[in-house]
Amino acid sequence: MKCVIIANGDLEYTRDMIRIIKAAQLIICADGGARHLKALNILPHVMIGDFDSIRPEDKTFFKKNQVKTLAFPTKKDHSDAALCVSWALENHATDITFLGATGTRLDHTLANIFLLKALALKHIPARIINKNNEIHVVTDFIELKGHPGDLVSILPISEKVTGITLKGLAYPLNHATIEMGSSLGISNFFKETVATVSIKNGTLIVTKSKD
Which of 61, 102, 127, 138 is most open to solvent, judged by the fewest CB atoms within 10 Å of its CB? Predict the structure, then answer.
């Protein structure tokens, strides 16, 4: 089941973003992400969070429309996005896209990226998408679609990543090892319309980006 989680970060209301939301079989709103869905006049299947950042008018709008709400204490051990992930998995989500998951709060952005790692370890396809980036965490293999010239970068987030093989990119690798902190994987780009990244051990952040 395709799921989209809308958080309270930056979100451009482009056709692509709207298409992603409407194509999802499960739409989950994380707290203040309600502002985005209200602006798009889209009702989520559920709203989850401590609701410390939702605007009063948004809360009223979704209450009037009888949207299911799961409220948690402000003093809690998990972020609103993490609570959304747990609920999504309990309700049979098999593919998760995060929108509004990046922004001015770097701590929240990083925490959301690391949620991708937790999902990768469960073999649940997931990504964060914003105006300029599509962010994945890879522990084994990923296939990416794009156009020649599209930027792709790989960044180790484990001490080292071994057995890295890149295909379909301008700078291929074959069973390479990259240590955390290396910039070797920055600013590669598509040579073909399909690129693959595979690794033997470790964890990579893989981003497809545009300036």
Answer: 61
What secondary structure, in 3-state letters, does the chain show? CEEEEECCCCCCCCHHHHHHHHHCCEEEEEHHHHHHHHHHCCCCCEEEECCCCCCHHHHHHHHHCCCEEEECCCCCCCCHHHHHHHHHHHCCCCEEEEECCCCCCHHHHHHHHHHHHHHHHCCCCEEEECCCEEEEEECCEEEEECCCCCEEEEEECCCEEEEEEEECECCCEEEEEEECCCCCCCCEEECCCEEEEECCECCEEEEEECC
Q: Among the three residues 100, 131, 162, which one is the final residue of a domain in this structure?
A: 131
In a domain, 32, yes or no: yes
The pTM of this model reads 0.94
Residue 201 sits in the same domain as residue 146:
yes
Question: What does the pLDDT profile of the chain (211 residues) look like in tens digits?
Answer: 999 999 999 999 999 999 999 999 999 999 999 999 999 999 999 999 988 888 999 889 999 999 999 999 888 889 999 999 999 999 999 999 999 999 999 999 999 999 999 999 999 999 999 999 999 999 999 999 999 999 999 999 999 999 999 999 999 999 999 999 999 999 999 999 999 999 999 999 999 998 7
CA separation (Å) from 195 to 89, 114, 143, 153, 202? Answer: 28, 23, 6, 12, 20
Total number of domains in the chain: 2
User: For residue 127, is it within any domain?
Assistant: yes
